[in-house]
Here is the input.
Amino acid sequence: MLSKMLVQEIQDLRDGGYALGEVIQHLKNRYGAKAPSVPTVRKYYDMDGVPEDLHARTAKEKAFDRPPFRDAIVEILENNPKCYMSSVYDVLVEKYVETGEFEALPGNEQTLRNFIHFLEESGAVPEERREGRKYDHVDDPPAGKQIQLDFGQEKCEGGLTVHFLCLLLRHSRYLGVYAQDHRFDSAEACAAIYRFLCKIGGRAEEFVIDQDSVFVASEEYGEVVETQVFGDFLAEQQMGLWVCNKADPESKGAVENLVKFVKSSYFSARTITSMAQVRDTLPAWVERKNRRIHQATFKVPGDVFEQVEREALRPLLPSVHEASPTNLVRVPIGSQPFMQYKGAKYSVPWDMCFHDAYYKAIGSKLHIYGEDRRHVCTHEISPVKGSFNRLEEHKKEEPSEWLDIAERLRQKWNCTKFQHFINGFKKENPRHLAKQLRAVESFLDSEQPDRALVASVMAQCCADWRYRFTQFKQVYELQKARFEAGDRGGQPDPAMTEVQKRDMDRYRKAFEERCA
Here is the structure.
């Protein structure tokens, strides 16, 4: 069938004075093997004008132009005017085929694409004009070379924002997508990546990533510093890293296309209201996309992966980010918080004493798990037998009982020298501080002295460096005797209303003698 534009071109050439043979030769030169046949050119050359309905007699019945498909397609396009046709086809499969209402759709994706163009041309649905960035062709890397990944997010109804991580085997175009309702951190991202590695059953040589803060801590003049968690994951899996340049479509366009594809093909034609809906439909959508013919390679990603790329992947290594760790070795923990591995000792938290621990050695790391199989800590494996390797957080904390005693003393006997008094006791009694302060508390509770007396005792202890209980008790007895005798230790008598003072002549005479 010829388009109206080609028929109009034939008749314009005729009206311009070209003979039939010249028109035929012009079309052959311009369209080559796709040029219309001589009888077809002659038919339209002899017509007086272009018919209104050029293909009325030869037009076939549209496969999707019947209920319930037409109404469903129109509804999807009206509710989601910017959706992609591949996403519309996927929703129809999900709505009519997977529910069992129809055994199969009446046409393939190209048939649906032609029908949607027909609806747009006929005015049944508004036609959406699209513009996009232009990219140069990027050669495919060898099988097993690269895994591309990038983050995306989609705002849905009800204030829900779906955050997702896309992973793509670059050679076969085999896809993996993992979603959650909050932004990924480094540990969650590494766990999702390892789930994808387990799914494909191996490791590629390198990751291709954008400069995202989840993976990259800093970058300066091409020197990339990974985050601690992601850097350890790369070392654990023995994989390289390719970081794309900023604002460079040639290096990161393929990575960004992953997110664009998920948004256009999965989210654009669906009304997402909860994460449960995403968890139910996203895995099946990923499997369908891995079974369809890829529009760039005209191959099925799943078939290319099984036939070519799976064999090129390196063997899978165990990881600390496993969802359900396997092949763990059990070891009992006694009264001391450490476990042994190849002749060396490695610390564990104190609350694991008299419990079982589990461990797994991966490369140069020793990963330790609790009884619930949850990761507890990681040690660097020591080559020195008999060494004791303790993490800083596993050191025994100092008992804090003395803090409670000191706070009770503060509430009862607080004064200007109280903190000085407590600090002195802490310095002089590092091992038995709680016992010393408890003895002071018990003694004062039994004596029930006046607050002024206690303040005087603490001040005297600070002045004379008396920071033990026996010394405190001696100072207390002396101060108590002075208080009972009316001597307040040099403090002025409150009853005194006049202050003695010397004559100024004495000071003047002393000054003149000093200056003479």
